[in-house]
C-alpha cells in the first residue's frame, strides 16, 4: 500500500474522477476518507453524479440510519405537539396520535425525495439536509394557543429564511462568532441534551408495569441500557469507530430492553401504506386533514413573531453543524463543508413545500445526519441519497417508525449520536483563557435565559473586546462589532418577549 499524495496544483486542475484512487492504495481507511474529502469538487446548483463527482461508501449508511432514526423521533414529537396544541386551542379540532403519524409520514415522503435525494444528493451537495428545528418543539403548544396556523407559520418562516440567505446573513453571523462563543454554545446544548435523554430513559423505565410487577420496579432497565451504551460508545471512540455509535448503541438498547422484559411496551400499530398526498385533503376543508382550513390574515399576524424567532435561531444551529465538520475533516476540505447560506435557502424552500403538501414540521439544518456524517468523515451527497431513500421506505412500511420511537432506541441514538459529540466538540474548541471567558459567559447566559439570547449577547460582548480576544475585536468594523450583533440581540429578545417565552421564568407577559 502506498501513501497517495497530490499537490495542490493537481487537485485544482484535475477532476474528482481523475484524482480518485481505490482504498487499497492507502495505508489506512482514514487516509482514504481524508483523500476523498480533499479531492471532491461539488457542483453548486449543478448535476452531481455518482462516480463522476462522489462515491457511495459503507460509512455513508451510518449517518443515513442515524438521520432516519432521529427524524422519525423529531417528526413524531412535532406532530404530536401540534395535535395536542391545536385540539386545545380550536373548539372544532380533534387531532390524535393517528393523525400525527400520518402527517409525519407525509413529511418523510415528499421532502425526502425532493430535498434529500434530489437537492442535497444531486444538485447541491454543499447544502446540508433540511431536517427538524428541535428547540422549537417545546414552543409548539404556545404557538397553537397564540392562534397561529401551521401553513401561515411555514410561509412566513420560508420567506424570512430566503431573505436572510439572499443577503448572506447566515454566513456573516457564523464568521462573527468566535471559537469561545461557539464552544460554549455547543457545551451547553450537549450537556442539557445529554441530561434530558438520560431523564427520558429513566422516566420510561420507571413507568414500565406488568401484571406481576408494579410501575417503578423495572426502573433498573433504564440504568442498564444507559450503562451499556456508554461503555460501547467509549470503546468505539478508543478504536476510532465512533461513527458507528448510533446504529450499534441503538440496536444494543433495543436488544437489552427486550432481554430484560421491556418488550411488552413496544407496540406495532402503524400499518403499511402511503398517506394522503393531496394538499386539498389537508388544507382544503375544516372537516378533514388538519381541520383548520386555509390561513387568514389573523393567522399570519399570530404566526409572525414565532417565524422571526425560528429563523433567528437558525444561525447558531447551522454554526454548530459546520463547526463539527471543521473539527473532524482534514485540512483543505473547504469545498465540501456545508454552505450556511445554501442550507438556509434549502430549509426555507423545504419549509414552504413540505407544509403545503400537508406537513407540519418546523425545519432547520439536519443535525442527526450531519454530526454522524462529520464523525464518519463523509461529505453530504451519498448519505443524503441513502437517508432520503430510507425515509421513503420507512414511511411506506410503517412499522419501523414504531421501533425507532421506542425510548431505548430513540433516546440512546440521540444521546450517543448528537448530544455527547456536541459536548465533546464544544470542549475541544475551548483551548485557552480567552476562549474560556466567552464560553463561560455563553453557558451562563444560556442557563439564565436560553441558548439563542446567550449566543447573541456573547457575540456582542466578544466582538467588542469586553470578553475574549481583544486583538480580534480591534480588527472588526463598527458594523461587525455593534450593528449586526446588537441588531441580532434586539430581534431575538423582542421575538421572545412577543411570544411570551420569558413569561414562566421571569414573569414577563407576552406582548402579543
From TrEMBL:
Sequence intervals crossing the membrane: 61-82, 103-123, 143-167, 179-201, 213-236, 243-264, 380-399, 405-426, 438-462, 482-502
Record keywords, A-Z: Membrane, Transmembrane, Transmembrane helix
Q: Which InterPro entries match?
A: DUF3360
State the name under which the record lists this protein: DUF3360 family protein
